[in-house]
Design a protein that fits this description.
Elements (H helix, E strand, L loop, with lengths): L3 H14 L5 H16 L3 E6 L5 H9 L16 E5 L4 E6 L3 E4 L6 H4 L11 E8 L9 E4 L8 H11 L4 E7 L6 H10 L5 E7 L6 H19 L6 E3 L8 H14 L1 H31 L3 H23 L5 H20 L10 E2 L7 H23 L6 H22 L1
Parallel strand pairs: 1-6, 1-7, 2-5, 4-10, 7-8, 8-9
Antiparallel strand pairs: 2-6, 3-4, 3-5
Helix pairs in contact: 1-2, 1-9, 1-13, 2-9, 9-13, 10-11, 10-12, 11-12
C-alpha cells in the first residue's frame, strides 16, 4: 500500500517539476521518493569535532577503513556501503570520480593533507565487506562541527539533511555545549531516528559515567521534548558498548525502516517546500526590480558568459569536466546577482574518460549559455511586452505558491 508520505512527495514533485523556477527542488523531492520506494536508509555519525566519530565508525564496521588522528582530521563526508571487495571512490564537485588506494585516502579526507578541501572533494564512497552493511544501509562518517575549520562544519551541516537515522556522538571528556545543542536542534529538523552515544567511557569511573549519562539524558529530554532518551555508553578504543549500539541500529533498519524513512521524509519535504517558497519570493523580488537594475544584472550575466566562452575556446582539459565547472560558475553568478538558486545536473565522469571532442564541447558551451539567458528572460519576464504572457506567468507563480502552502500545512 502506498504511504501518505509517498503520495504527498509525488504531489509536491509534480508541482515543482512543472515550473522552471523550482526544478532544483523537484530533483530533491525525486530523491525522497526514491528513498521511500526503495527503503534506502542512511545512518550518519555526527557531532562535534574530536568526539571520536571516525574511530567509532571503524569499531562499528570492525575495520580500520577510516583514517583517525590526534588533530581534527575528517574534512569530507565519507559514505561506506557494502561490498565484497574494498574500494575507495573520490567524488569531486566538478563531477570527476577517481578510484584511489585505501592507503591514500587521508590525502582526500584529512584536513591536514586537504586543507580547506582545496581539492574540491564532494564525497568519498568506500566499499567494505562489513556485516553491519549487508542489509543495504548507507553508513556515513561526517566532519566534526565547531572546529577552527569552517568548511568542515559547513559540510557536516549540509549532510545532516540527507540523514534518516543519526548516531549523535558525545564524549565524557566534555559536557554538552552550545555547539552540540545547536547542531542537535538543526539535525532534529531532518532525521527520523536518533541514537545517542557517549564515547571514551574507558577514561572515567563508573560513578562519573553514570552521573554524566544522567546529565546528558536530562539535557536531551529537554531539547527533544521526550523522556524516551536512550544513551549508549561506548569506548571506540576498547570496543565496549559497540554491539548494543549496532544491535539497536540494525533492529530498526530491519523492523522500523519504513516508519523512520517516512518521518525523515516528512521533515525533509517540509524544508524543501519552505525553500521552494523562499525561491519563489526571490523570483518575485527579481521580477519587480527597476528596469535599470535588471539591465545592469543581465549585462553582468552577459559579461560572465562572454568570459566563459573566451576561456573555453582556449581550453585543452577534459571537456566534460570543464562543462560541469561552467555550470557551477553560472549557478554561483545567478545566486550572486539575483539571489536565486539555478539548478544544473552535474554529470559524474570516471577519471580520464573522454566522450566529446573540441567542436562538440564548444557547441555545448554555447547551448548552456544561450539556454541560461533564454530561461532567465522567460521566468523573470525581462523586457516582456506581451501582457498575456506576463499575466499567465504571474498566475502560474501564484497558483504554485498557494498549492505549496497548502501542502506545507
Amino acid at each position: 500500500m502506498t504511504s501518505q508520505t509517498l503520495e504527498k512527495c509525488k504531489k509536491v514533485h509534480e508541482l515543482l517539476a512543472a515550473d522552471e523556477a523550482c526544478k532544483g527542488y523537484a530533483e530533491q523531492v525525486a530523491q525522497l521518493i526514491d528513498k521511500l520506494e526503495n527503503r534506502a536508509m542512511t545512518v550518519s555519525i555526527i557531532g562535534q569535532f574530536k568526539r571520536g566519530k571516525s574511530s567509532l565508525s571503524n569499531s562499528i564496521l570492525r575495520d580500520t577503513i577510516l583514517p583517525v588522528g590526534i588533530v581534527p582530521i575528517t574534512s569530507a563526508v565519507t559514505k561506506v556501503v557494502y561490498s565484497e571487495e574494498k574500494y575507495a571512490h573520490v567524488h569531486f564537485r566538478n563531477g570527476a570520480v577517481e578510484d584511489v588506494p585505501l592507503s591514500e585516502l587521508s590525502r582526500y579526507i584529512s584536513e591536514q593533507e586537504n586543507k580547506g578541501n582545496e581539492l574540491g572533494v564532494e564525497m568519498v564512497v568506500l566499499g567494505a565487506p562489513s556485516e553491519f552493511l549487508k542489509g543495504g544501509m548507507e553508513f556515513v562518517d561526517t566532519p566534526g562541527v565547531g572546529s577552527f575549520h569552517k568548511n568542515n562544519t559547513e559540510a557536516a551541516y549540509e549532510y545532516m539533511k540527507e540523514s534518516d537515522g543519526v548516531i549523535f556522538l558525545l564524549s565524557v571528556d566534555s559536557p554538552i555545549n552550545q555547539i552540540e545543542i545547536d547542531f542537535l536542534r538543526n539535525t532534529n529538523d531532518f532525521a527520523g531516528k536518533f541514537y545517542f552515544a557517549v564515547n571514551k567511557t574507558d577514561t572515567v569511573s563508573e560513578a562519573d559515567l553514570s552521573a554524566y549519562v544522567d546529565y546528558c539524558r536530562m539535557i536531551l529530554s529537554q531539547l527533544l521534548g521526550t523522556e524516551e532518551i536512550k544513551i549508549f555508553p561506548v569506548s571506540a578504543k576498547e570496543g565496549t558498548g559497540i554491539e548494543e549500539l549496532k544491535t539497536a541500529v540494525l533492529t530498526d533498519c530491519r523492523n522500523n525502516a519504513e516508519q523512520i524513512l517516512e518521518e525523515s521524509a516528512e521533515k525533509k519535504l517540509k524544508e524543501i517546500i519552505t525553500q521552494s517558497l523562499r525561491q519563489l519570493d526571490f523570483y518575485w523580488k527579481a521580477m519587480n526590480m527597476p528596469f535599470e537594475e535588471l539591465d545592469e544584472r543581465f549585462a553582468a550575466v552577459q559579461k560572465t558568459i562572454q568570459e566563459i566562452k573566451e576561456t573555453a575556446a582556449g581550453r585543452n582539459a577534459i571537456f566534460e569536466l570543464y562543462l560541469n565547472e561552467i555550470k557551477l560558475q553560472l549557478s554561483a553568478k545567478i545566486l550572486e546577482l539575483f539571489g536565486m538558486e539555478y539548478h544544473y545536473n552535474i554529470k559524474e565522469l570516471p577519471a580520464g574518460m573522454v566522450t566529446m571532442n573540441r567542436d562538440q564541447f564548444l557547441k555545448q558551451v554555447d547551448e548552456i549559455c544561450d539556454d541560461l539567458v533564454e530561461t532567465l528572460n522567460r521566468i523573470l519576464l525581462y523586457r516582456e511586452e506581451n501582457a498575456y504572457t506576463v499575466v499567465r506567468r504571474i498566475n502560474s507563480i501564484n497558483r504554485l505558491t498557494r498549492s505549496l502552502k497548502r501542502m506545507q500545512q
